[in-house]
Amino acid sequence: MVTRSPWFLEEVGLPYRIHRVNISAGEQFKPDFLSISPNNKIPAIVDQQPVDGGAPISLFESGEILLYLAEKTGKLLSKGLRERAATLQWLFWQVAGFGPMLGQNHHFNHYAPQPVPYAIERYHLETKRLYGVLEAELQKHPYLGGDNYSIADIATYPWVVSHPRQRIDLADYPAVRNCQPDAVIRIKNLRLRTFIGIKEEEINNRQDVLINVVIHYPADKARNSEDIADALNYRTITKAIIRHVEDNRFALLEKLTQDVLDIVKEHAWVTYAEVEIDKLLALRYADSVSMTMSYRRD
């Protein structure tokens, strides 16, 4: 879940540069990175131009990064006492509960070397409880904490995108389900520099893009599948290469949207799909960047 910081930066139009940290190679343990993020986790940022005019400020932990950037820009966090308090309590709710518990859900369902039934059930039940809390709030307000979109929504929504892997059916949480299109539209209408790696300076640099289309099976389809891999993973992956990205930065997204719709149309059982895009060519302004777009069949 490292998309939240660049999502905010794109929303408010702050310039930035992405530096890739290769976790598989252990780069998060190198002294240079630890000096920025002592907890050896991503995301982390360095603000080269803090508002006090002093030396650069380094920050780690996504919640603190969002809060810092909101205060720096005066955007996506109300200055009013009550609305600010409501936004911050939902931001901290995500940081303290929603994110960590769903992370444990992911781990024991998909990454643990051996099944641990107690842990799987424990974190699934807690995930359902937390979705119930989220549902209750979104039944009362269009956004977390009130009527205005804020850093609390940016912090929370990326976890909701992965609901199939959490064994969560959004049909049980209609208010949460209905908030998804709004968030997806926001992602689509951002400048997409973060997600497909096209900066203003790069628009004329054609490049190859690797595309993974991840299609999630509904649970009943997976159970009835004759393919063991499908039954275990609830998804299939189709890879393709698009060569020579159009100069228009939105052309790639438009093509991928159609690709997803074509796949969904071909396979009537698909209830949810994601498009994951990774830039193959490391250009000057970003070493590695990615984008996720979701589709849900009503």
From TrEMBL:
It comes from the Eukaryota. Keywords: Isomerase. One of its GO terms (biological process) is folic acid-containing compound metabolic process. Residues 1-77 form the GST N-terminal domain. The keyword Isomerase applies. Belongs to the GST superfamily. This is Uncharacterized protein. It comes from Oryza sativa subsp. indica.
